[in-house]
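Task: sequence design from structure.
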């Protein structure tokens, strides 16, 4: 349980969260088959500076926007992320934590330098410069059938020529955390509709090879949703709780436990994808990696999809 890992040293905060917590059955899928989970403790990865960038979009209608339905609370999520990651993680300084809202969230900031209107390796204006990337807003997918499968995030405006930032097996996909000193991205967190949906993310060729591959690639974890999120104010408090409990542990486990919780027992289907060299290194990151402890998962040649059938809204996963 992610709550107990953090509460060992901090028993006086958010004690009420324990009342809402439940023991979920965590499952992991490789490309081909289900596997039993094992727990491993491996050395933590060393790191110099820690940076975060948060994106939130609620305004999707009007001049220059991306013509989708307006949301209500996604910008609250981004603001909560920006404040909490500094408050609860001593490795992060406010000078290295940035947030962009609505029209400030541009497709150009997600494209790689040298591709399209590339800016994602530019400090403070892109995404690759940050170790942790958070997005809350609309998402979607192309149906996830056939050999070409992809999902996307919907930007706040079309600056850079694209409203939809594509994550998938297409030629214009985004590359995050690629080998190189200017591409630091370790985690991508997406509170967006179906942005990590099966079978888009866990069937055949995994579409989430967006880390550039090869030696030195850094992107290891993507947290997202199999279904559509609930657009409500409570999301921002869940973001706050998630960052409180994940400074050094449970960066994947807590995403499932906390980001899916709702007081009315209606759950979001929170899922995770990890790239690694083995099941053990994937589990080590999922359970024991944190915002200040990225873990080394080895070569990025295997993909693991984490989900939980105990949540009602995960019911359309083929294993549930």
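Answer:
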């Amino acid at each position: 349980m992610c709550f107990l890992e953090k509460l060992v040293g901090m028993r006086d905060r958010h004690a009420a969260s324990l009342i809402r917590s439940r023991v979920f059955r965590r499952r992991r899928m490789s490309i081909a088959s289900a596997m039993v989970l094992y727990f491993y403790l491996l050395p933590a990865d060393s790191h110099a500076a820690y940076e975060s960038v948060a994106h939130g979009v609620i305004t999707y209608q009007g001049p220059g926007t991306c013509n989708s339905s307006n949301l209500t609370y996604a910008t609250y999520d981004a603001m909560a992320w920006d404040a909490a990651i500094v408050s609860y993680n001593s490795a992060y300084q406010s000078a290295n934590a940035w947030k962009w809202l609505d029209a400030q969230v541009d497709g150009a900031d997600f494209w790689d330098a040298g591709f399209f209107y590339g800016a994602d390796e530019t400090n403070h204006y892109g995404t690759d410069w940050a170790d942790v990337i958070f997005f809350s807003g609309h998402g979607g997918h192309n149906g996830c059938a056939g050999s070409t499968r992809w999902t996307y995030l919907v930007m706040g405006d079309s600056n850079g020529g694209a409203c939809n930032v594509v994550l998938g097996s297409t030629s214009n996909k985004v590359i995050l955390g690629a080998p190189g000193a200017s591409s630091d991205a370790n985690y991508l967190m997406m509170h967006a509709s179906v942005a990590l949906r099966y079978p888009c993310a866990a069937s055949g060729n995994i579409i989430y090879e967006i880390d550039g591959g090869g030696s030195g690639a850094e992107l290891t974890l993507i947290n997202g949703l199999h279904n559509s999120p609930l657009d409500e104010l409570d999301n921002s408090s869940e973001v706050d709780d998630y960052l409180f409990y994940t400074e050094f542990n449970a960066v994947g486990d807590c995403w499932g436990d906390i980001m899916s919780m709702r007081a009315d027992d209606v759950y979001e289907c929170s899922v995770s994808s990890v790239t690694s060299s083995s099941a053990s290194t994937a589990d080590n990151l999922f359970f024991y990696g944190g915002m200040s402890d990225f873990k080394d998962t080895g070569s990025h040649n295997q993909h693991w999809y984490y989900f939980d059938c105990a949540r009602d809204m995960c019911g359309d996963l083929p294993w549930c």
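Residues 2-11+24-35+49-314 form one domain.
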